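Hello again, I could really use a second opinion on something today. I've been staring at a protein lately and its backbone has me curious. Can you walk me through what the tokens say about the fold? Take your time with it, there's no hurry, and the full record follows here:
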Amino acid sequence: MSAYTILVILVSVASMALALDSCTVQRQCYCETKTNFVDLNLIGNITFNLTDSQGGSIYSIRLCQTLNLPYVACHSVHGCQYNVLSGQNYTIANASNPVFNDSTTLIYRGANRTTVVNLVCSTQQDNFTFSNEKPQLTYNFVLTGKSACPKDLPVSTTTTIVPSNTTASNTTTHANTTITTHPPTNSTTVTTTPKTSPTTTAKVTNATTTTTVTTKSSTPKTSITTPIASTTHKGAASTISFMTLWTVTFAVWLSSTLF
């Protein structure tokens, strides 16, 4: 067995496995598997009228919507059989929704009868044919065409918006202004004028010499001015006065002696 033959077999098996996926979601004329879906609603209102190979029966089929024929047994049904020889009518697909056996087989129930529609994917235009009645009272049809092809499920895309961590800040630029704050000064500048102590003058009667002793004291400038007490040097003044008196007396005595 060549490698090409093996590859063809593997592809065929994979295709069959995909086609036979069971329906995870099912509603009227719609089957959805894990990977694809089949939807027959686009052709669901078309009435297919077929005759078997012997010409003994006429079949009217509408896949997704009910039909109404002028026969009691074929009112509001999906499928009806009319027997040309006997003139009898039979419901072969009642008004209940069809059921997908898998993604390639659609089954309708009727009064003691069953209709099976096999789906064959093709690139050709849709074609609906009668296959056979096998087993008895089971009517097999084939839908071949694009409508029978499974279609890929749309890929759902979830968009997540991540909040940006960027904080927009409004910056107001001010002119560079230098403000110099001078701390309040509680200091008091006191200017102290040097004080002159009182002048002590010793006067001697009948004397021509007068001695004046002046004592000057000053207090330097300070932030806090302390009153300066005036001090009179009484001891020094008394001593000087005594010496002056003695000198004057001696001078008088000497003058009287000599002259």
User: Anything to note?
Assistant: Confidence is low (pLDDT under 50) at residues 1-19, 171-182, 187-234.
